[in-house]
Amino acid sequence: MSRLIRMDQTGHTTLAEWRADDAEAIEAAVRAFREELDRGYFAMVSTGEGQAEQVRELPVDADLVIMRLPISGG
Amino acid sequence: MAAEPLPELAAVHWRPRVDAQRLRRTDALWTTTTIAHVVPFLAAGIALFLVQPLAVPVTLAAFAHAWVIPELYAQRGANVVRPKRSRALVEAEARSVGLLGDLVGHEARELHASTGLVLERGRLGAWLVGPAGALLVRPGGRRVLCYCVGVNDPELPSGDRIAHLLLALRSDERGFATVANLAFSGARWRVRRRLAAAMRPALDAGTAAARLLDTRAMP
What we know:
A: alpha+beta; B: 5 strands; about 15% strand
């Protein structure tokens, strides 16, 4: 089961869950994904030990997609 | 690290992108600045004493300045990882630490539990990431750069704050070092003595990791 989560004030919130063979769940996940992008979040996927990548489309085959806010120098 | 630059770089478009060579220049500049602060006070103190030995209190005051100014800079550096009270609920904190634990290995999880910092090996050095800043231990482990960087949501729990920084760092290390504000660059021992005692093992672990890094592989 793949998950789309957003890091937020609750720790994190699961926005969508899907399986690769469940078109309806994927569609809902894509919708949720785009809504978060529109709100200014960036989507990140781990691509190996110590590596991550920003994605602009929902990677359906990823186990975990994390939405994060922009960072800035303090 | 992936090639796509951090989108946050657009907010600091005037800054040159950090690389190993630029970091070496930054290190050299900070060393020169420190010398420029220390040497005049030492020289003035010695000269005063030679001219008028009774002026020894002034000499000692000059020496104190030569010592205090670099210490204040180091304190400023150590402050980037100083723990701050979280506004998040206890449950949110626990949940965020759980997610962070999923992103890092066993060793980093244990280090975070005991020190509040996450160790991440990069190509520029070994990073120690906290909720509102990061320390970069340069290869060889003798020098540390202290960066002030965070996510602008005061309600976020600390684990999420670290996870934000960690994901950004992992996607574009050089971009991360460019976006972050440099608060200090100097000798590791200077930063270590200004850190909270509980955090010093993290710096020691970062130093050990940095000593194993191959400087030839640096970008």
